[in-house]
Amino acid sequence: MGIAAFVFGVHVATYWRLALHREFGYLQGHIIGVDLDGVLGRHREQFCKVLMEERDKDVAPESIVKIPVHECAGLRLCEEDEWAVFNQPRYWTEMAAYEDASYVLKRLRDVLHYEVLIFSWRPWPNWAKIPPEQLERYRRLWRRTSLPRITRQWLRDRDIPCDSLVIEEGNVDSPDRWRGGRNRFIVSRNRMIRLFVEDDLDKARRLADICEVVFLIKHPYNQNRLEGMRLPNNIIEVGGWKDIYECVRRHL
To answer: Does the pTM exceed 0.90?
Structure first.
């Protein structure tokens, strides 16, 4: 009788602990984390456009089936081609936004009361990757701006709501804060981010251990995975922002 009462007491205590965590834990973190390139910005189309202008190489956006792009078989691109694109300010300033991104994020914030945190790793310009004979040209291009400034202006120009912008730095792939860096994994854990919208499959899998739900926006480069590979149950593949809003509105 005593053992049964003890087991029952442990069960009740465990239930209440979980209930309190649900109420005062992740539900208190009513936050959505959002990656930028490939989630808010149409980076494949923009990459191909600037690549043609800078390197005179014609690549179709749908042929980008792997990132980094120079690893895509058959495209015959090298790292220098990528650097020429990413070191160019107009690649970042002129990138088009996905349709419905602004509208859906406004609805999530204003109607469903989510706080919006936007994340991006943007270590450009990378002066070490610029040929010496072109350094002066790029110094002129970047003289009065920087990527954090460009990113904030890009969000304002496209009317995308943002309560906080996190430009990731240091070790951007590790969830271990002791390894140095400021990234989506560390911030998601510290802020108890409930939902995350991602386009990188590896990052989505890691975020699934931290967030309640991770939305993976489909791109050719995140669909090319091993046959039979199963995603964690809390990763939801979506075609775009309308799918995300309907899922959050109805189920979350």
So the answer is: no
The DSSP symbol for 41 reads B
Mean pLDDT for the stretch of residues 230-237: 95
CATH architecture for residues 29-42+97-251: 3-Layer(aba) Sandwich (3.40)
b/e map of 156-173 (b: 16 or more CB within 10 Å)?
Answer: eeeebbbeeebbbeebbe
Tokens read off for 102:
């602004």
b/e map of 230-247 (b: 16 or more CB within 10 Å)?
eeeeebbebebbebbbee
* Long-range CB contacts for residues 127-136, cutoff 8 Å, separation at least 24: 129/79, 129/80, 129/83, 129/87, 130/83, 130/87
Q: Give the dihedral sign, CA 83/222/57/98.
A: negative
The answer to whether 181 and 174 have CB atoms below 8 angstroms apart is yes
- Is-contact 235 56, C-beta < 8 A? no
Q: How many contiguous H segments (helices) and E segments (strands) does the chain have?
A: 11, 8
Averaged pLDDT for residues 226-241: 89
Q: Where are the domains of the chain?
A: 29-42+97-251
